Amino acid sequence: MEKFPMTLGGYQKLEADLKKLKNEERPAVIQAIAEARAHGDLSENAEYHAAKDRQGWIESQIVDLEDKYTRAQVIDVASLDGDTVKFGATVTLIDEDTEEEKVWQIVGELEADVKQAKISVSSPIARALIGKAQGDTVEVAAPGGARSYEIGKVEFK
């Protein structure tokens, strides 16, 4: 069984999502099905069919999240340290062309979210950064062409 590396924060979010589906969404859809059944003929009852479709989606989400939850390998980033980039590191990158700074945290695939500046450990940027240290230059193949970045800072927080 393959394990998924995940930060403690990502694991807690996964746990919260699973609890919400089981404790809120599942009972609500069961209630909606019961109400729709009370309206009579199920063959032409759009509310009933919509609720059943929603129930199927919720149940598949629960199975999927439970699988991920049991296979998560939780890594407490706060307990990590060092000078090189590895899983969990928050890295400040300086674009060598524009001098623009970007800050990224390297996280597991399941918790990656570009809007929150979290990139997957398997992304091209993260793969280029792993093992490098502050002051090193990395070249990353991007859709618009290769980009060069200097590692400005490596933190574990």
From TrEMBL:
InterPro entries noted in UniProt: GreA/GreB_C_sf, TF_GreA/GreB_CS, Tscrpt_elong_fac_GreA, Tscrpt_elong_fac_GreA/B, Tscrpt_elong_fac_GreA/B_C, Tscrpt_elong_fac_GreA/B_fam, Tscrpt_elong_fac_GreA/B_N, Tscrpt_elong_fac_GreA/B_N_sf
Pfam families: GreA_GreB (PF01272), GreA_GreB_N (PF03449)
Domain called Transcription elongation factor GreA/GreB C-terminal: residue spans: 82-155
GO biological process: DNA-templated transcription elongation; regulation of DNA-templated transcription elongation
Keyword annotations: DNA-binding, Elongation factor, Protein biosynthesis, Transcription, Transcription regulation
Keyword set includes Ribonucleoprotein: no
Coiled coil: none
Function recorded in the entry: Necessary for efficient RNA polymerase transcription elongation past template-encoded arresting sites. The arresting sites in DNA have the property of trapping a certain fraction of elongating RNA polymerases that pass through, resulting in locked ternary complexes. Cleavage of the nascent transcript by cleavage factors such as GreA or GreB allows the resumption of elongation from the new 3'terminus. GreA releases sequences of 2 to 3 nucleotides.
Entries under NCBIfam families matching the protein: greA, PRK00226.1-2, PRK00226.1-4, PRK00226.1-5
Family according to the record: Belongs to the GreA/GreB family.
The protein's name in its UniProt record: Transcription elongation factor GreA
Species of provenance: Hyphococcus flavus
Species classification: Bacteria, Pseudomonadati, Pseudomonadota, Alphaproteobacteria, Parvularculales
